[in-house]
Task: structure prediction
Amino acid sequence: MSRILTITTLISLLTITVLTTPATSSTDSFVFGGCSQLKYTPGSPYESNVNLLLTSLVSSAAFTTYNNFTIKSPTPQDTLYGLFQCRGDLSNGDCASCVARAVSQLGTLCPDSSGGALQLEGCFVKYDNTTFLGVEDKTEVLHKCGPLIGFDSDELNRRDVVLGYLGTSDGSYKPFRVGGSGDVSSVAQCVQDLSASECQDCLSEAIGRLKTVCGPAVWGDLYLAKCYVRFSKAGAPSNGGNGNDNNGNDEVEKTLAILIGLIAAVALLVVFLSFLRKVCERERGCK
Ligand SMILES: *[C@@H]1O[C@H](CO)[C@@H](O)[C@H](O)[C@H]1NC(C)=O
Ligand SMILES: *[C@@H]1O[C@H](CO)[C@@H](O)[C@H](O)[C@H]1NC(C)=O
Result:
């Protein structure tokens, strides 16, 4: 019996793993990253300031979806600025784990770089020794469009209405926006160091460019330096921060599902055999 119990425990553990995998992978998928060309000297005060800054970002992300830090230094070129921005619908826990992952990926992507920025599906992290806090920046960082067979003209109108709604302002500060109609859904996010009007301006710009570059694609993402806009049609193939990543996860999930099926089958067999044996022993003392 204890063996069966162990197998049952194993199955539930694996099931939990599979059930939690998609959620974390969708907020943690890599979208883009970049590093400053300048390097700091390892072991320098600059390095300890970078570490202090990144640690502060990670611990702060457990309490809020946005924060900025300035690490002052007697030498101006060693003064560091940094921020993180989580997508507005993330829980504190998801925000914290997303920022932790982004910071660790930044470390791998930008070793000894004086500055760097990294966007995962669920959060954005940036640090540098030049001030960018509160500075509007509409530089396009990335756009990606799905297959161009997505919408008939009715649907395209609906898509444009959804994006239009996302881009309207009632004057209040809305750094995170979601919109949808029928099978079209969309999401927008500003980095919250922008003022309400700068955020509005950034999103209008992003929406205009997104419509132009992706046209009638089934999904589209457009990232400017301080805001992004994304839309997708339900059931559209592979709209993710990184299509390949998602496919990879799908494969892992399939493999795990097969594995679980096998383990369950073995467990059932064990139960069945021990049942048979009991029946056997009771009826006519087998062996
Ligand atoms: C930023 O840091 C790098 C590396 O230490 C340095 O070369 C550069 O001059 C600094 N930039 C500013 C604006 O201080
Ligand atoms: C940076 O953070 C401070 C303290 O949380 C806040 O008062 C300030 O408005 C923030 N600055 C920007 C540009 O977001």
Observations:
- The radius of gyration is 25 Å.
- The helical segments are 2-28, 45-60, 92-109, 153-166, 196-214, 243-284.
